[in-house]
Amino acid sequence: MNELSLVFFILVIAYFAIEYWLGQRHIKHIKNNRNQVPTEFAADISIDEHQKAADYTVARKKLGLVEAAYGAVFLLIWTLGGGFDLFDNIWRKLQLDPIWTGIMFLLSISLIASILDLPFAWYRTFKLEENFGFNKTTVKTFITDLFKNTVLSLVIGVPLLWLVLWIMQSMGTNWWLYVWAAWLTFMLVMLWVYPTVIAPLFNKFSPLEDVELKGRISSLLKRTGFMSKGIFVMDGSKRSGHGNAYFTGFGKSKRIVFFDTLLESLNADEVEAVLAHELGHFKHNHIKKSILLTSALSLLGLWILGFLLDKSWFYYGLGMSNKSDYAALALFFTAAPVFLFFTTPIMSWFSRKNEYEADSFATSKTNGNDLISALVKMYKENASTLTPEPLHSLVYDSHPPAPLRISHIKKDLAT
Fold first, then answer.
1. In what order do the strands lie in the sheet with 231-234?
2. How far is CA 224 from CA 96, 188, 218, 220, 279, in A?
3. What does the mean pLDDT of the chain come to?
């Protein structure tokens, strides 16, 4: 065990210990506030609905902690325990072309990881979500989705892996720059292709038929200068009772999507306010900023990987006995989340900042009271807790807690 092994082991333990500690704080806080609806929500959310949200949040967090423990154990087994090394030696014995050895190695560990995660996905869908009345997924749909995802992963992933490994093998010491360019191109192409090619493989997207609502949305789009390829309704109720809205795509492929469950629960004013919030992300360039940040971080990550590629201590320290391009990829992207965990609060802060900005934009373009009523309904329909533990929320939550978010909107209304 070298210095990297020791540092990695300590970080994995610290990673899980912090996650467990924060999770237990969150559970205790929610239970302590289970029997009292926050005053500002008392007129709209009943005690039964509040308690359902509390119980649902606690159940999800408990499952998440079990997954975290499971993940930490297998992370150590894959790396320091020699799991990656075992699979590497198996594929090396077949004496395939180096690139195809790498592809088969990466696919095999990805397959094993998916199989290990399958019981949690099954339990989450057919036990947890079912118990709280959200699951609409049938066993047939679950299996069909699993098959489609596997096929897509192979069809898209194998050529991409081949390209990356070929670049690493052929383009010299600056390979990381060429891989970054290839990855960035792939990401932009997927943003363009996903709404029209991939998403319809899983859900049905129908043009919005409500003439009055469509007219109001078109007027909002004109006021905000947003060009869209269309307004669609997605059959989200096919899989879940949760509701949402989003816009997706890139360039001329941008489209607005409403879950059918959302349209059933909100009135026209509230739908318009929710859409204005989503458009606020567009007008504040949150999507572009996210792409730029992701691009910069991926470039930095690949540069670091380029530095580590020929360092024996990197491989040995994470449990592998042979150096290779594909082993470097597997080790780096497996270990990176552990080292990046401590940046989570920063990323969460930026995300919450974006949500506040989008809310302010929506309040300036529509009635802020409609946005508040829509959010309250969505909290209720999705069984979102109104009383998250503050420190847990600070670290993990991408959206501001309900009381803070609504207070922020009310301040905008008052100015």
1. 205-207, 231-234, 255-259, 245-248
2. 56, 24, 10, 6, 8
3. 91
